Amino acid sequence: MKKLRWWLLRRRLRSIELLVLDVDGVLTDGGLWFDAEGQLIKRFDVRDGLGIRLLQQAGLHIAFLSGGQGGATEVRARQLGISHCLVGIKDKPAALTALQNELGVSAEQTAFVGDDLNDLAVRPVVGLLFAPADACWPVRRGADAVLRRQGGHGAVRELAERILQGRGRWGHLSRDGWKDRND
Predict the structure, then answer these.
(1) 161 near 51, Cβ under 8 Å?
(2) For residue 7, is it within any domain?
């Protein structure tokens, strides 16, 4: 399947109201680290976090949707003010559809970033599917676009910048910088 060019996606990116992110392999590099007590430790990219904050300020709903559990994801969601942190999910399409109904957002207004086979299942319920550069081949093949950055290394930030560019909000940010606001 031929990937859509970013300039063709620009109009569709403008209509996105809900960005749903898989966690392991998208917000993290997919590695699972355990301390001596068996507690799960995950590494998140701070630039992805700022990209999420910028999208929130632009009015987008952001959600985490993960089959995994362990606590680190919930902590990161709280740090970023993400109220829709769905973990331990076995049926991603059903959970995503329920979230869309709760928020009053259509499939066409929803984008999803995933990296592995269980993420392909959401394809019928989203308008746009994105894959990090290091996603498994079937996800890259089925995605509308493949990001240049790898999961856990700025892939979410890359997409955030593209969405903000499509909405005409990136120019002033890249010129004047960003100041955190509580609005």
Answers:
(1) yes
(2) no
Does residue 67 lie in a domain region? yes
pTM value is 0.92
Cα dihedral sign, 98-104-107-112: negative
H or E stretch covering 20: strand 18-21
Domain with 51 in it: 15-170
CATH number at residue 95: 3.40.50.1000
- 126-158 residue pLDDT tens: 999 999 999 999 999 999 999 999 999 999 999
Reduced to 3 states (helix: H, G, I; strand: E, B; else coil), residue 165 is helix
Which DSSP helix (H) or strand (E) runs through 33?
A: strand 33-34
DSSP assignment of 41-104 equals E----HHHHHHHHHHHHTT-EEEEE-S--SSHHHHHHHHHT--EEE-S-S-HHHHHHHHHHHHT
| Overall domain count for the chain | 1
Alpha-carbon gap, residue 55 to 160, rounded angstroms:
6
Residue 59's Cα: distance from chain center in Å? 15
